[in-house]
Design brief:
Length: 469
């Protein structure tokens, strides 16, 4: 059995997982983080010039109508410039920090923001709180934070270097011993040695701690930017709520379709046989005294009818969660499934032994596998098939996916068509938050890959039946 690595689930917008090689890794990241701090100092000057121009322009605006229009245009332009600056800052932080910032949904949140008129849409930015937060960040918060971090970083290096330089100057007598009153008291050489000692000690400590200090400043920048330049959690919750509603609707639709198909199969199969069985037994009862031979024939036919009805009911009952799945888990149930398959099917279990799959995920994975294996027997004209069960990391890096990969050597040409099995699988996966990939060129082979999130919070259909067409 092939073992695959397990990726722990985490929120990508919180602190990233701790990595190995802490001190050496901090030194490796120091040039990039120092570059961020240095560019921030340059941007403070640029923003300061822009802010002074903005304030000067505000003071120059009069109380006339023209002045009011000029003020509105100035504020409007500042909002757009602040958005561009904030977007650039998010890009810089993405380069300097390992912590992502939640993206902002810039979709207009007002009716006039969705107007057909371009001018109306452009002016609607004044109703978007993100623009005002970006403007506050650009004019006030960023200059204060970036100025503070740049000052502390430079001062932490300049002060001990100044002490070392002063010590060298006094020890070598380049600076006169009587230049200052305190040097006359303790002597220029003594002061030089003392300054040199403290300068070297402080400079050594600063150099040793510099990677952590600079990294702490970058983390502080990222935390403040995440609060002001990141998307609102409420916006994300609205999107999740809409997705949940879509998933719930799709799950209910898939459940209703499955039940209607089960009802149709029971009506067309076992129910008709049981009606025929009842009629044969009634005829045999009437003929038992007048025509014993015919009665025996009818009873034999009734026995065959009951046997066939029992087989059909057993086949239909496989649509419900089998006891084997509940008692021994997914792999044991899939082994039983492939043993009953019309087409010789090989099961490959590549799920790591320490991975725990929830019962809801197992149940739905079994139903989907049953649907796919049944479709091969009915439509693929294949001579053999493979069913691989495995796990892999989700595309967004958060969580694991349980994957079912079904391959057959049939005629190919499979696709999503209304009323067919793969369309039913797709409906079920929407409810699970999963996705379906089909590769089926003409002439085969057909490869169907089903991916089910193992940590999904979508509505999970419980005790549903496979959508066998």
């Amino acid at each position: 059995m092939n073992q695959e690595s397990v990726i722990a689930t985490h929120n990508p917008y919180l602190s990233p997982p701790r990595q190995s090689g802490g001190y050496a890794r901090r030194w490796r990241g120091l040039p990039r983080e120092l570059g961020y701090i240095a560019l921030s100092a340059v941007l403070v000057v640029v923003v300061g010039i822009g802010a002074s121009i903005f304030l000067s322009a505000l003071r120059g605006v009069g109380d006339t109508v023209t002045g009011f229009v000029a003020f509105a245009v100035l504020v409007f332009a500042s909002l757009w410039l602040a958005r561009w600056f904030g977007t650039f800052e998010v890009i810089r932080l993405r380069w300097a920090s390992e912590r992502p910032i939640r993206p902002v949904d810039w979709t207009p949140n007002t009716v006039w923001g969705r107007s057909d008129k371009r001018v109306v849409r452009a002016v609607s930015v004044v109703a978007n709180p993100h623009y005002w937060l970006y403007l506050l960040y650009a004019l006030v918060v960023f200059p204060a934070v970036a100025g503070f971090t740049a000052f502390v970083t430079v001062a932490s290096l300049v002060v001990p270097l100044g002490l070392v330089l002063a010590g060298v100057l006094f020890v070598t007598s380049i600076a006169p011993s009587d230049a200052y009153s305190f040097t006359e008291t303790i002597g220029g050489t003594s002061f030089g040695l003392l300054a040199l000692f403290f300068g070297v000690v402080v400079l050594t400590a600063v150099v040793l701690l510099l990677p952590y200090v600079v990294h702490g400043f970058v983390v502080m920048h990222q935390a403040i930017a995440a609060a002001m330049l990141g998307g609102f959690r409420s916006d994300e919750l609205e999107v999740e709520l809409a997705d949940r509603e879509i998933s719930r609707t799709a799950a209910l639709s898939a459940e209703g379709t499955a039940l209607r198909r089960l009802e149709r199969d029971i009506h067309d199969g076992p129910q008709q046989r049981l009606v025929r069985l009842q009629m044969d037994l009634a005829a045999a009862s009437r003929a038992i005294e007048t025509d014993p031979d015919r009665s025996r024939t009818l009873i034999e036919e009734a026995r065959l009818q009951s046997q066939e009805a029992l087989e059909e009911l057993r086949a239909l009952s496989r649509g419900f969660a089998p006891p084997l799945l509940l008692d021994r888990g997914l792999i044991a149930a899939l082994e039983s499934l492939v043993d009953r398959s019309v087409i010789p099917t090989t099961l490959l279990d590549r799920v790591p032994a320490h991975v725990v799959v929830s019962s809801d995920i197992e149940r739905n994975a079994y139903f989907i596998a049953s649907e796919l294996v049944t479709n091969i027997g009915k439509h693929a004209e294949a001579s053999s098939a493979d069913l691989v069960v495995r796990t892999r990391q989700a595309p967004d890096g958060a969580g694991l996916l349980l994957e079912l990969v079904v391959t057959d050597d049939g005629r190919g040409g499979a696709g999503l068509r209304d009323g067919h099995g793969l369309a039913g699988v797709q409906e079920r996966l929407v409810g699970l938050g999963g996705f379906l990939d089909i590769s089926s060129p003409a002439g085969g082979p057909t490869i169907v890959t089903v991916s089910i999130p193992m940590a999904t919070t979508a509505t999970l259909p419980v005790d549903t039946v496979p959508l066998v067409d």
